[in-house]
Amino acid sequence: MSRAIPAHASAPALELIDISKRYSVSQGMFKPAATLTALDGLSLRLEEGQTLGLVGESGCGKSTAVNIMLGLLSADEGAVRLSGRDIRQIPLKERVRLIQPVFQDPYSSLNPTRTISDLVGQPLRLQGTGRAEVRHAVSDMLNRVGFPARLADSYPSELSGGQRQRVAIARALISRPKVLICDEPTSALDVSVQAQVINLLLELRREFGLTMVFVSHDLSVVEHLADRVAVMYLGQKVEEAGVDGLFTHPAHPYSRALLGATLAPDPAAGLPDLALGAGAADPLDRDKGCPFAPRCALAEAACREGNIPEIRVETGAAHRVRCLMAASV
């Protein structure tokens, strides 16, 4: 499933280096504020043309990571680089030409008072592109994403969910960005429409040579779309591998639990046994140990103390896991 990386690509298209983000959380009038760790030393590297699936439960830090990638949120520590350049040093007007998002809810991300053609063409108008050129580019892009030309003067409220997501994708790609960040782009859609949008993203990735981050809780979608997968748990990347390596030989107990949560086609099989403990790590108390230890059947005393290093797993290219018990799974 992995595709060849261009030989001329010297710097990665997108790189996160030891990103950490914390928030101060009030605990009431008579208690001191607590620290919520949203991201804890997150590092990711995408070569040109790769698609990375970013997966994990709600609250694991995926959305915070996306906002930092896009420059919408500043990290407390670490750096984000686009083609080797620190994102903080790239002017906003240039940055929006390099990296663009497609968000979960296409309706809330589209101005309801603007027509579809206006919405899709807005990024080019902000760049100073001429009216005739914008009109031609909008028509071409709407055609590429399979959006009916007869609806170009419609408003978002007049469209289906799938049509609105095609508009959001067209708007993101109109300025030909190098990196596309898709944050749960299919979760608000019906299953049949999800398949259409996923296939569209696959076609556009090939056509434009896109580098993509695809954030999702749906592992079947990630398996179909991504080259590599990074699994997150409470702000940490606990495992990263190629799609085949992760789905065939998951090394972290949490990754195994995620894969085991997939329902079997046979109704008689019942619900899967995830073998997770009843406890959960406190996101307000993340000073030491593995965050997954309270739910892990394999956890030992060492898992609850000190820093858990990232190790390489011999199952394929660049398969890494942060787990002391990786050899036991």
Tell me what the structure shows.
The protein is an alpha/beta fold. It has a single domain (about 15-329), classed as Rossmann fold, CATH 3.40.50. Helices cover about 30% and strands about 20% of the residues. The protein is built from 9 helices and 12 strands. Strands 6-7-8-3-9-10-12-11 form an 8-stranded mixed beta sheet, with helices on both faces. The protein has a 4-stranded antiparallel beta sheet with strand order 2-1-4-5, with helices on one face. α3 (about 115-125) crosses α4 (about 130-145), α3 (about 115-125) packs parallel to α5 and α4 packs across α5 (about 160-175). The chain is globular and about 65 Å long. The model is unreliable at about 1-10 and about 265-275 (pLDDT under 50).
